[in-house]
Amino acid sequence: xxxxxxxxxxxxxxxxxxxxxxxxFSSGSVSRRLDFGLGPMNAAFxxxxxxxxSIHELxxxxxxxxxxxxxxxxxxxxxxxxxxxxxxxISVGRKLFPPALKFFGIEPHRVIFVDVKLKKDGLWVMxxxxxxxxxxxxxxxxxxxxxxxxxxxxxxxxxxxxTGFLHRIRPVSQATLACVSRWKISPQPSHSNGLxxxxxxxxxxxxxxxxxxxxxxxxxxxxxxxxxxxxAKRPAALTAESAKNNLDSNKASTKMKAG
Amino acid sequence: MPKRYxxxxxxxxxxxxxxxxxxxxxxxxxxxxxxERGRMVVRAVSPxxxxxxxxxxxxxxxxxxxFPGLEVIPxxxxxxxxxxxKLAEWCFRFSPIVxxxxxxxxxxxxSGCPHLWGGELPxxxxxxxxxxxxxxxxxxxxADTIGAAWAVARFCRELLIEPxxxxxxxxxxxxxxxxxxxxxxxxxxxxxxxxxSQLTAIPPGNLRRRLGDALLFRLGQALGTERELLKPIQPTxxxxxxxxxxxxxxxxxxxxxxxxxxxxxxxxxxxxxxxGMRSGILKGYRLDGETVQISIGTNRASRNAAHLFKLFELxxxxxxxxxxxxxxxxxxxxxxxxxxxxxxxxxxxxxxxxVIAELLDTIAGKVGLQCIRRYxxxxxxxxxxxxxxVGSLDSQPETEWRTDRPRPxxxxxxxxxxxxxxxxxxxxxxxxxxxxxxxxxxxxDGPERIEQEWWLxxxxxxxxxxxxxxxxxxxxxxxxxxxxxxxPQWFLHGYFx
Lengths: 259, 497
Known about the structure:
The complex is a heterodimer.
Chain A: H1 4-22, E1 55-60, H2 63-81, E2 87-92, E3 111-116, H3 119-130, E4 137-142, H4 147-160, E5 163-169, E6 181-188, E7 202-210, E8 216-223, E9 226-230, H5 240-258
Parallel strand pairs in A: 1-5, 1-6, 2-3, 2-4, 4-5
Antiparallel strand pairs in A: 6-7, 7-8, 8-9
Helix pairs in contact in A: 3-4
Chain B: E1 5-9, H1 13-21, E2 30-36, E3 39-45, H2 47-51, H3 60-66, E4 71-74, H4 77-90, E5 97-101, E6 105-109, H5 120-133, E7 139-143, H6 146-155, H7 166-171, H8 182-191, H9 196-200, H10 204-211, H11 213-223, E8 239-249, H12 252-272, E9 275-286, E10 291-302, H13 305-313, E11 325-337, H14 340-344, H15 350-367, E12 372-377, E13 387-390, E14 410-421, E15 431-434, E16 437-450, E17 462-469, E18 474-480, E19 489-496
Parallel strand pairs in B: 2-4
Antiparallel strand pairs in B: 1-6, 1-7, 2-3, 5-6, 8-11, 9-10, 9-11, 12-13, 14-15, 14-19, 15-16, 16-17, 17-18, 18-19
Keywords (chain B): DNA damage
Protein name (chain B): Protein ImuB
Pfam family, one (chain B): IMS
C-alpha cells in the first residue's frame, strides 16, 4: 500500500504467473528454473524461462536441418538431463549417431533409443513415456503428426511435467499442432576468424511460434559445452510481423542466390 | 536302513540321440567319431555295427576300409551330456535322489522306493520299459552298492542282486567291472587276472604293493566295505500356479480376475524366495481341449504384481476363450534373483530406474524388445564399430566416450556414393553431387584417415573430411582408397550440426 507502483508490478507479475499455470505452463518454481544458456533468447519465453513440462515442436525441412536441430536439441537435453537424468529417444528411421551426443554434454548411454517402424507405434510409445515422471525428457522423431495426436501428447505432459520434443523431419504438411512452440533450426556458415577449416557449429534458431511469448530469430554457436549467443546485425527479438517479413526477404535472397 | 542302489546303463545313448535328431538314420548302421591326437576315433557305434566287431576306440579310417560308404557323423558330447541330465530329471518320478554318471549312466538311490511299485522287480521292469518306450535302450540293475550295481548292469545276466549278495555276483565278473583305469586293467590282464575272485584270493597288502591303492578302493566300493558318496542333481524349481474355475470363463473381465489371483499367488512366492520373473506364460485350457496362451518378458526381474498385470493386460485380447476356459496356469519360465542389495545398486535415483524398467517392459510388450536399444562405447576407430548395442539397463561403459575426433550428429546407415570434383589428390573436393543436387563446398577440415581393422575386414582406408557448403550445412564425406592405384570412390557418411 505504501509503495503502490511496486505493489502493482508485483500483482501483475503474480497474475501473469497464475495465468500461465492455468494454461498448462509450469509455475517455474526455483528448483525447476534451469538455465539453458540461451541468453537473450530467454526474453522470448513466457516468464522468461524455457517452458519445461510441455511439448515443443521442431520442424526440419532438410536432412542438414534435422542434424542441426538434433544438435540444438541435444544442447537443451544436456541441461534437462543434468547429471543423472534418463532420456527416451523414439524415432522412425533414426540416423542419430549416439557418440555425437557426448559433444553436447550428454552421456550417450543414458539415452534409451526406441526404434519403431510405424508412426502409430511411435506416438503410442511417446504417450506412455510422457506419463512416466522418472524420465527427464522424451524426444520423438516422426514425420507427420496430426493436431489431435499432438493434443493427446500435450494432455499427457500436463500431469507428469515431463518435457517432450516432437521433431518432424521433412514433413509434408505444415499443420499447426497443439504444442507450446514451433522451432526451426538451420545450420549457418561458421566463422573461423580467418583460420582455415570449419569453425564452431553455428545454427540459426527460429522460434516461429511460442504460446504467451514473442517469436523471433537468434544465432547460436556451440562452444566449449554451452551455447554462445551470436549477436546479429539486425535486432535479435522481432515482433511476429517483422519476423515474418524478415523470413520472406531471407527466402527471396536465397532464391536470388540460387538463381 | 540298508541302502539300495539302482544303476541305469544306456549302451547306445549317443546313437539313439542322433537317430532321433535325424529320423532318416533310424535303424541304419552308422558311427559317431571325434578327433583325438590328430586322428578320427570312433566314439559310438550303432547296434548293427557292434555285431560286425566295430568298437569305440578304433580309427575311423580303418572302419571305412572295412565298410566303404558307411555313414560317419561327428559326435556331440555336450548334447549327449545334456540329454543324460534330462533323463536324470525325468527319473525324479522313481526316486528323489538321482545322480548322473557320465558319459552313459544314471545312479538312483532307491532305498525305500520300490515297495510303491510292488517290489524291486516290478520297479526295475517299469523303469526299463518306460525308457524303452521313449526310445532308449537301457539296462538297469539293483544292488547294495553303487559299484556292484554298475558292474551288474554292464556285465551280468542277473539284474537283481539280493541284499548282501553282491560279493557272490561280483566274483565271477572280469576285473573291468571294477571301474578301474586303463593302465591298471592292462597290467591285470598281463598278470593273468581274468576274474575278480582271483584278486580277492590275494592278501590286500600284496595287491596294494603291486597295483596301488585305487584297485583296493574300487574293490571295497563294489563290495560295500568302502563308502561311496552320491552327488545328486538338484531339481529345477517350477514356478507354476494353477487356478481351476467352477464355471468356464468366457469374458475378458473374468480372465483379468483369474490373472490377478494367479499373479498374487506367484508374486508372494517369488518375494518369499527373493526372486523375480523375467518371462512368464499364462495358459488357458479350454473346454474344447485346446490350449491358448500369452507370454510376456521383462527387462529386469520383477515381482510387482501390478506391473506384471499391466504387461499381460496388453495381450489379453489375444486369448480366445471360445466355449470357455476351465483352467488357468501361470508359469514363470525364467526366474532371476532379485535382492534388495541389487535394487540399491541402481545408483541413479534408485526408484526411478524401476519405474523406467517397467515403462520399457510396457513398450517392449507393444512394439517388441528388439526395438529398445542402448549404446555403449567400443574401442574402435571405425565409425560403424565405435558403438555396441546392449540389451540390459544395468550395463555401464567400460571406456570413455571419445570426443577427440569430430563425429557427425547424423550417420547414414550406409555411406551413400557421391560424385565429386577434386582439384588435387589428397585435397577435399570443391563440390559434390548428391542425389542430383550440386553442393558447393566452402570450408573443409581433414583428412582423418581411418584404416580398416585388419582383424575384422580387409580393404582400402577411408579419408574423412568435414566440409561445409555455402549455405552452412556441414557434411562428413570420405574417400575410399587412394589416388594412384585405381580411381577412389567418394561417399557421404553423415551430417554435422
